């Protein structure tokens, strides 16, 4: 098994819902492992069209779909690995082949419809020869507080991760951000109730923030409204 | 995902900066564990929405006059590289305030005598632990931020901090 990364960037998720925990002993009826296997990665190496494939692979085998409890469950932590393959014809290659095709027809009489046909034909010929790009994303599922660490930060990959969790274990992933973390911060209820009332504060000297005046922050009002109101108050 | 309170993330980083420079860079988490925080060599400062963002790298960006000028304009820390220490463990990571996402997280050095399995497990625990620590410090921030007296007690202190920084700036020399 490859060593777990020494450094990296990650996004965290709260898991809403209950997934079956891996069983303590290896068993054919381990629901957790069976769900992984059902959603294992499937290759698009021979695909003749542009495609994306997302699925689970074993941490020890980049193409493997044999999941064992021993390499996944490490105490309260689960070590998972998501594989994302994308097959997309590089635009430069399309341009090269398209130019050659058009030139072969002396550049005359190539209508938009014909260009679309040529494009489809080029794709059909080139796609089977093209290897997909491959990404492996490490995932840590902390069963103690039901959170997930996902070692990628792009919106596309985060969305694919959420989809894969939903498909595999019917659980929902909620991204950790200042709002979701504040809402789950185990603070007293009277404090949490104030979350809806606060507004950003400013540090420029002499500024009086809406937070300081105790006004409820109204997102429909822009700063110009507030400035105009201040001028009117000063004139009064 | 709905993140209407994203400004809390940039306020959190700015508050952390203020705490560190006010000599309160040690946090007692859960009333027991002590954690130290320092700002490192990367800061990004911006205002709300589409205002210009200023990125400062290398050297001591927290002491840079540009950083003071940005704070004095009402801008907040949007991204920062920080160092966190707990006992013998240490992490370096960049936090994006708006999303509270972590990048370039360097896990604490593992014990060279560890076996492969224990090394992997300690690295995984290390990533989980740094998340817990930041969550706890964010909770400490929220406890202050959501207190009714925040605007009258903490904000004036933070403004005084910015004023002090401005007062320490060298006087400008006319361009010749």
How is this structure best described in words?
The complex is a heterodimer of chains A (236) and B (176). With 236 residues, chain A is of the alpha+beta class. Chain A has nine helices and seven strands; from the N terminus they run βαβαββααββαβαααα. Residues 208-224 of chain A have low confidence and may be disordered. Chain B has one domain (7-164). The relative contact order of chain B is 0.16. At the A-B interface, strand 1 and helix 6 of A face helix 1, strand 6, helix 3 and helix 4 of B. Strand 1 (7-16) of chain A pairs antiparallel with strand 6 of chain B.
Short description:
In chain A, 36% of the residues lie in helices and 20% in strands. With 236 residues, chain A is α+β, with helices and mostly antiparallel strands. The model of chain A is unreliable at 208-224 (pLDDT under 50).
Task: Please give the structural blueprint.
The complex is a heterodimer of chains A (236) and B (176).
Chain A: E1 7-16, H1 31-38, E2 51-57, H2 69-72, E3 73-74, E4 77-87, H3 91-104, H4 112-126, E5 133-142, E6 147-150, H5 155-169, E7 172-175, H6 178-183, H7 189-193, H8 210-213, H9 223-235
Antiparallel strand pairs in A: 1-6, 1-7, 2-4, 3-4, 4-5, 5-6
Helix pairs in contact in A: 3-4
Chain B: H1 7-21, E1 26-29, E2 33-46, E3 54-57, H2 65-72, E4 76-86, E5 89-96, E6 101-106, H3 116-145, H4 150-167
Antiparallel strand pairs in B: 1-2, 2-3, 2-4, 4-5, 5-6
Helix pairs in contact in B: 2-4
